[in-house]
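stuck on this one:
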Amino acid sequence: MESHPPGEGGLGRIGRARTVAAVAAAVRAGVPGAFGWPALGAQPLWDALWARLAADARAEWESGRLSLWLPVLFAVGMLLYFSAEQEPTVWAALGLSAVLTLALFAARPHPVSFGLAAAGVAVAGGFSVACLQTLRIAHPVLAPSERAIRLTGYVERVEHRATADRILLRVTSVDPPGLTPGLVRLSLARGSAPPTGSGITQLARP
């Protein structure tokens, strides 16, 4: 006969047997609504189920298996960010992460609550990281225009290509005034790119 250690496989055969036994004991005690939606006064049934769930959650957490879900939940938080219909507020996301982190520490004596709080922190953390990354790479975008604009700045990088030269310009001013992007990539005629570090004024069309 094949045997299974009590802690192997999470809710294994022995764990499921204990859960069923706890439910059966509550039913034999005459708990109303045990086979459907719990009726008023079904507290013994809930207590038995909650105690069994808490014991299983503690065993899973102590074995390290529940922690394997944290990266998955972190990725779920990022997916929730990208599925939002409008740009979320980064401060709200960070505030939620902070509140859930405090709840995580407060729930340490309670295994089930601790597991739920850890899941919430992982999801909120992924959401917050996506918000911060978007904020970090955000930059002004010049709208298409029928007229050329005058860019003034310093050449940060030069790329010599087969058909043209390309420079990366650190912009200090734009004429006519408007959005001033930090960096602009410009294509120039081959062999006409100024050296790196040069201060230039260049006409460009967005």
Notes: The helical segments are 13-28, 43-63, 70-82, 90-106, 111-137. The first strand starts at residue 149 and ends at 160.
